[in-house]
Amino acid sequence: MTKKILLAISLFLLLGISVYVYTYKGHRDIESETADYVVTVSGLEKEFTSNDSLAYLKYQDKTIELTAQVTTIDTTGNGIVLGGKIFATFKNRLPKDVTSGKMLKIKGRFLGYDELLQEFKIDQSSIVH
Q1: 93/16 Cα distance (integer angstroms)
Q2: How many C-beta neighbours within 10 Å does residue 11 have?
Q3: What are the CA-CA distances from residue 41 to residues 19, 57, 74 (Å)?
Q4: What is the pLDDT of residue 47?
Q5: CA distance 72 to 78
Q6: How much is the pLDDT for 21?
Q7: Which residues, given as ranges, of the chain have pLDDT below 70?
Q8: Which ranges constitute the DSSP H helices of 29-120?
Q9: Second label for 17, Cα 20 to 30 Å away, from 61, 90, 99, 100?
């Protein structure tokens, strides 16, 4: 009887640990990943205009790299708007040398398209040198 209880407790603990490890995976380090896609602002717009379902499947939660001109800087939200269409938030503080009008190459995780603001959202961004 004691062996059955001990076996049941062991199986329960093993199952619990397995579920925990599966659910709480380690965080991705987007900065060290290679980009899945190198895109342009106009290229993203075209893909989402032609078929947004396929575009979401392609880019959702993927690391993308793009180059565009800085149009707006949001120092309180630690983000920038690139090409008037890409809102990118940075993992770390926004570098001081980022100015409006400057061409910038960034890499980050693609989150999606905000139809209300008509902006693409990227987080965990970093500047590619």
Answers
A1: 38
A2: 10
A3: 40, 18, 19
A4: 92
A5: 11
A6: 81
A7: 25-26
A8: 41-50, 52-59
A9: 61
15-53 per-residue burial string, b: 16 or more CB within 10 A, e: under 16: eeeeeeeeeeeeeeebeeeeeeeebebeebbebbeeeee
Report in angstroms the alpha-carbon separations of 80 from 3, 16, 17, 22, 120: 61, 42, 40, 34, 12
Question: Hey, CA dihedral for 100, 105, 110, 114, is it positive or negative?
Answer: positive
Per-residue confidence (pLDDT) for residue 97, from 0 to 100: 80
* Alpha helices by DSSP H, the chain: 2-23, 41-50, 52-59
Between CA 126 and CA 13 the distance in angstroms is: 40
Instruction: With CA atoms as reference, report the closest residue to 63 among 124, 129, 128.
Output: 124
Q: Tell me the pLDDT tens digit for each residue of 47-82.
A: 998 998 999 999 999 999 999 999 999 877 788 999
**What letter represents residue 78's amino acid?**
N
CA distance 73 to 49: 26
The torsion region of residue 57 among left (phi > 0), alpha (psi -120 to 50) and beta comes to alpha
